[in-house]
């Protein structure tokens, strides 16, 4: 199976960068494409696994292709279309395009061309070849709930911390963390961040042994504090005010100035003022965990059994609910049910061979020895 995790130097030497797109512009394109997939999936009532799978496909695709070659919004629709089939929540391509048209401006939707459905269907084949048909993707959501059940402490504070960490996982889809670390590492780091912001300190946990210095040592070994803070700062950078640009699918002006990152800065203990994680969780309609900590289960609506009503006989008090029997005396003979006639079949049976039977050709001997000839597949 392919290995989908990259170093930071590889993330800065992408096909888009080699095609003349700056790193800041590429990160903005990735963020806009991921946010578009989340908004489209929310509007179509898709589950969080489907949305997250589509975003991971999106990030992996642009590790092999440039944003100049493939516009981001067409790729986003294609990734969501494929993720719906993989996660068994399929949506029609025309419905995804209809929602995309309602979310995009006319200038951005013009990149879909004259036949948007054909564009998405054609790109799906390229997407499958790019991700090497590796369709199954793991996400931090399951690890987040699994780890939270092992922690001990005040239940309301623990629930608040889990809700905040869940929101951070949703927002981390707009970054390239899914290309850097495994989902269990991301889950631990964002739970650590949520614990700092919600002031929930983990003092004890189930399965603790003396060699564990922190609660995450039981789940992920050899994880350093520098790594946790690096992941946390990448998510916190999403909440920092950044200049918004409404450019097209390729940059038209000089790249924006790089914003210095304070990698060694200690984590703050107050939520960012630009966007509150708790408020974001309430506003989003993607997914949230249940109060008891279990995953949401999307169940189909229950259909009530169909009830059939039988017409009453003429002259009787309706409704006639008794068992079916012969009509009462005095009823017109024409209303009586006709007798069952077991007549002979219209066509008598004929002794014919089955439809897949082919008699041997005259003069043809046994097949030649050796392996059978290879079938011919015409080019597609």
Descriptive account of the structure:
The structure is a single chain. The protein is mainly α and 380 residues long. Among the domains are: 8-131, Orthogonal Bundle (Cyclin A, domain 1); 140-239, Cyclin A, domain 1, CATH 1.10.472. It is built from 13 helices and no strands. The longest helix has 21 residues, at 23-43. Mean pLDDT is 76; it is low at 250-327, 331-338 and 340-348.
- Please count the helical segments: 13
The helix/strand order is HHHHHHHHHHHHH
Distance between the termini: 26 Å
**Helical amount:** 25-40%
Q: What is the percentage of strand-forming residues?
A: under 5%
Secondary-structure class: mainly alpha
Low-confidence stretches: 250-327, 331-338, 340-348
Main location: nucleus
Biased composition (Low complexity): 242-251
Family: Belongs to the cyclin family.
Keywords: Cell cycle, Cell division, Cyclin, Mitosis, Nucleus, Transcription, Transcription regulation
Task: Supply database-style keywords.
Cyclin A, domain 1; cell cycle; mitosis; single chain; transcription regulation; cyclin-dependent protein serine/threonine kinase regulator activity; Cyclin-K; 380 residues; 0% strand
Helix and strand layout, with pairings?
Elements: H1 8-11, H2 15-18, H3 23-43, H4 48-61, H5 72-86, H6 93-103, H7 106-109, H8 116-130, H9 140-148, H10 155-172, H11 183-198, H12 225-236, H13 277-283
Helix pairs in contact: 3-4, 3-5, 3-6, 4-5, 5-6, 5-8, 9-10, 9-11, 10-11, 10-13, 11-12
């Amino acid at each position: 199976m392919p290995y989908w995790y990259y170093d930071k130097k590889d993330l800065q030497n992408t096909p888009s960068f080699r095609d003349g797109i700056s790193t800041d512009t590429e990160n903005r394109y990735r963020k806009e494409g991921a946010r578009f997939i989340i908004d489209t999936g929310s509007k179509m009532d898709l589950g969080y696994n489907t949305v997250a799978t589509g975003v991971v496909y999106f990030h992996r695709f642009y590790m092999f292709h440039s944003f100049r070659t493939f516009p981001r919004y067409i790729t986003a629709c294609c990734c969501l279309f494929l993720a719906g089939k993989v996660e068994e929540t399929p949506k029609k391509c025309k419905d995804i395009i209809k929602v995309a048209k309602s979310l995009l401006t006319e200038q951005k939707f013009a990149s879909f061309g004259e036949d948007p459905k054909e564009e998405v269907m054609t790109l799906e084949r390229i997407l499958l070849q790019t991700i090497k048909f590796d369709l199954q993707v793991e996400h931090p959501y399951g690890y987040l709930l699994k780890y939270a059940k092992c922690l001990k402490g005040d239940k309301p504070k623990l629930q608040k911390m889990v809700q905040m960490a869940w929101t951070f996982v949703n927002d981390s889809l707009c970054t390239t963390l899914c290309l850097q670390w495994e989902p269990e590492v991301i889950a631990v780091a964002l739970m650590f961040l949520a614990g700092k912001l919600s002031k929930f300190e983990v003092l004890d946990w189930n399965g603790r042994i003396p060699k564990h210095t922190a609660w995450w040592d039981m789940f992920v070994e050899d994880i350093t504090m520098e790594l946790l803070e690096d992941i946390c700062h990448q998510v916190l950078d999403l909440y920092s005010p950044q200049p918004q640009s409404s450019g097209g699918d390729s940059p038209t002006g000089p790249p924006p100035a790089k914003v210095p990152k304070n990698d060694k800065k200690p984590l703050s203990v107050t939520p960012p003022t630009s966007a509150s994680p708790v408020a974001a969780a309430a506003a989003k309609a993607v997914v949230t965990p249940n109060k008891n900590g279990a995953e949401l289960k999307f169940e189909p609506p229950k259909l009530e059994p169909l009830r059939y009503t039988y017409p009453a006989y003429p002259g009787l008090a309706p409704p006639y609910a008794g068992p079916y029997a012969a009509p009462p005396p005095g009823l017109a003979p024409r209303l009586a049910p006709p007798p069952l006639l077991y007549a002979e079949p219209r066509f008598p049976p004929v002794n014919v061979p089955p439809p897949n039977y082919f008699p041997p050709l005259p003069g043809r001997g046994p097949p030649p020895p050796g392996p059978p000839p290879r079938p011919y597949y015409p080019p597609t």
